[in-house]
Write a structure and sequence with these properties.
This protein is about 30% helix and about 20% strand. It contains ten helices and 17 strands. The longest helix has 22 residues. The protein is globular and about 85 Å long. The two termini are about 35 Å apart. The model has no long low-confidence stretch (mean pLDDT about 95).
């Protein structure tokens, strides 16, 4: 059987960056090609496979009674925020705790990334300093595939084990065409978290705001009482929102407004915000504050601002509170594997959040990586191996669970 490390290194050789400007499903050809490779591997493993639109659903049939149907899900795409082609991974054996120097002169130091100190003495995989690594989420795929293969070739009793690989999670479309009925699990886990031990069943409520401001340009020497500077009006929107409620100043359960982009000139300005909050009441208050701010400025400047607010996803805790056996199963299984659970809210979202609202309870479990979406991404090999062990243990410990 192929080790989880070898499988991971093979998977990251495929460029599967998603593209938010594409309207195809998947958004890039690389994902579609990779989905075909995964489907073929599942078939060779002896699984039942259903593949459509780049989504892979595969099932290892139950060999015993009394087990629920458990799903494990990971996404195929990598973030478009950093280069994802020609990845040249480096395996650092018995990491010493010192600075990691890349060939291009860049340095990954424990002074900047203190989590490195947690893995002194372990083997870790890094990039060469020019690309992302792809542990988000090809580590999750490698862990699921390795665990299912080990179960398939063992005498372990288990129920139906169903795996799903999705495209375009990084651009917020991972659950768009996911067919919960075809998938057929009673509940599932996304293997898409960070450090070993992470177990998450809460995430942000999320909205996106798009703002377009139409200004009026007049020669600045003769502009008194005539010019409407769109960029300055945009700055007034930013100034009106709480300065302490931005990503750089919040943590834990604190929500925020994040100005993602502001571009324009006197004549026209466009702004994009994301709004995040864990609690429904305060989430609505945040959206209302932005809407009220725009309303006041429109009254002052003659209706020049167009605001569109779109809900993106909601906090999955709402759908898991009466199904906490799904979380408890993962927590117990972690402890059985010698892993200390780190139960914390996700300051973001996963496919599992949307899937939970589509009728598939789906908390999130660690994949083991750190510093996703950039050149400083790394993953300890031991964390991937423990994730494989955990998947197997969850399947074993699920005996007798009533859904």
């Amino acid at each position: 059987m192929e080790s989880v490390t070898d499988r991971f290194l093979r998977y990251i050789s495929y460029n599967t960056a998603s593209n938010e400007n594409s309207e195809t499903v998947p958004s890039t050809k690389g994902q579609l090609e990779f989905s075909k490779i995964l489907a073929e591997e599942c078939l060779k493993m002896g699984l039942e496979v259903n593949s459509k639109k780049g989504y892979i659903y595969a099932r290892l049939k139950a060999n015993a009674q009394g087990y629920p149907k458990i799903g494990f899900i990971a996404h195929m795409d990598t973030s478009p925020e950093a280069r994802g082609e020609n990845i040249k991974p480096r395996i650092i054996k018995n990491y010493s705790g010192e600075d990691i120097k890349f060939d291009n002169g860049k340095i990954m130091s424990p002074a900047d990334f203190p989590e490195l100190k947690d893995y002194v003495g372990q083997d870790i995989i890094t990039t060469d300093g020019t690309t992302l690594l792809g542990a988000d989420d090809k580590a999750g795929i490698a862990e699921i595939m390795t665990a299912v293969e080990e179960i398939k070739n063992s005498t372990i009793n288990h129920g139906d084990i169903i795996i799903g690989f999705t495209p375009d999670e990084e651009i917020g479309r991972g659950a768009d065409a996911f067919d919960v009925n075809v998938f057929g699990a009673d509940f599932a886990y996304t293997m898409d978290g960070g450090a070993i031990g992470e177990l998450e069943f809460e995430n942000f409520n999320a909205a996106k705001a798009k703002i377009k401001i139409s200004g009026r340009n007049v020669h600045p020497g003769y502009a008194k009482n005539k010019m409407l500077n769109a960029v300055l009006i945009g700055s007034k929107i930013a100034e009106a929102l709480p300065s302490g409620e931005t990503p750089a100043k919040t943590s834990g359960y604190e929500g925020f407004y994040h100005l993602c982009s502001l571009k324009g000139d006197v004549e026209e300005c466009e702004m994009t915000y994301i709004i995040r909050d864990f609690f429904s009441d305060s989430f609505e208050k945040r959206k209302n504050l932005l809407a009220d701010t725009v309303k006041k400025l429109n009254k002052k400047y003659g209706g020049v601002i167009d605001l569109q607010i779109y809900d993106e996803y909601k906090n999955m805790r709402e759908k898991l509170e009466d199904k906490m056996y799904v979380v408890s199963l993962a927590e117990k299984s972690m402890r059985d594997c010698g892993i200390e659970p780190i139960i914390q809210p996700i300051r973001g979202g996963t496919d599992g959040a949307r899937l939970s609202f589509m009728g598939l309870p789906c908390p999130n479990i660690f994949a083991g990586g750190h510093n996703f979406h950039g050149i400083y991404e790394f993953i300890p090999i031991n964390s991937m191996e423990k994730a494989v062990e955990l998947i197997i243990k969850i399947c074993q410990n699920s005996y007798g669970i009533k859904v």
